[in-house]
Amino acid sequence: ARIVVLVSGSGTNLQALLDAIAADPEGYGARIVAVGADRDGIAGLDRAERAGLPTFVCRVKDHATRDEWDRALADATAVYEPDLVVSAGFMKIVGKDFLARFGGRIVNTHPALLPSFPGAHGVRDALAYGVKVTGCTVHFVDDGVDTGPIIAQGVVEVRDEDDEAALHERIKEVERSLLVEVVGRLARHGYRIEGRKVMIP
Ligand code: GRF
């Protein structure tokens, strides 16, 4: 399977996928064909370039409207003919054009146990709420914010001494291995989405 990964930051989830594929290029069942971002100068793009991958950047401010940005992102992604798009720390909500082109084939990872704490501050919100366990969710993207069908979740204990950074780092350890496992399974076995259920044979 051909994968395009979208990033906005450090790209450690991207790196986990790159490392898993490098460790077993035949067996993993997928390869990353390009990495896209919504901003320049991020470590995620450096990681892609170090891996010799093509990259593209679509910045909202370079477009007259959000819809035009969304169309540009879809066009740039479509160049690589992905089977799966993996949003790994991509901090923008894709719009109707992107969903029209790739809907049902976009996987996102979120650092909380959805439907709890959706949005850009899932770790901070969980900490502020005082939950005793949180975690991460790998799900398909639909037209909502972090609302698509859930594929897998991982649980992470919250510790009294946690601040946002410490908790997020501990979540990311679980998140990286969950994403690698899920993406490989989807790529090797295919899947069906039936309502809110994801069936992987
Ligand atoms: C991940 O925890 C992701 O769920 C969240 O931001 C983080 C990105 O981390 N949206 P990285 O860029 O993959 O290191």
Distance between the termini: 16 Å
Distinct ligands, ions and cofactors found in the model: 5-O-phosphono-beta-D-ribofuranosylamine
Query: What is the number of beta strands?
Result: 9
How many helices in DSSP terms? 7
Helix content: 25-40%
Family: Belongs to the GART family.
Keywords: Purine biosynthesis, Transferase
EC number: 2.1.2.2
Pathway: Purine metabolism; IMP biosynthesis via de novo pathway; N(2)-formyl-N(1)-(5-phospho-D-ribosyl)glycinamide from N(1)-(5-phospho-D-ribosyl)glycinamide (10-formyl THF route): step 1/1
Protein architecture, described:
The structure is a single chain. With 201 residues, the chain is α/β, with parallel strands linked by helices. Helix content is 39%, strand content 23%. It is built from 7 helices and 9 strands. A 7-stranded mixed β-sheet has the order 3-2-1-4-5-6-7, sandwiched between helices. The chain has a two-stranded antiparallel ribbon with strand order 8-9. Helix 1 packs across helix 7 and helix 4 runs parallel beside helix 5. The relative contact order is 0.15. The mean pLDDT is 97. It binds 5-O-phosphono-beta-D-ribofuranosylamine. 5-O-phosphono-beta-D-ribofuranosylamine binds next to helix 1, strand 5 and helix 7. It catalyses: N(1)-(5-phospho-beta-D-ribosyl)glycinamide + (6R)-10-formyltetrahydrofolate = N(2)-formyl-N(1)-(5-phospho-beta-D-ribosyl)glycinamide + (6S)-5,6,7,8-tetrahydrofolate + H(+). GO terms for molecular function: phosphoribosylglycinamide formyltransferase activity. Its EC number is 2.1.2.2.
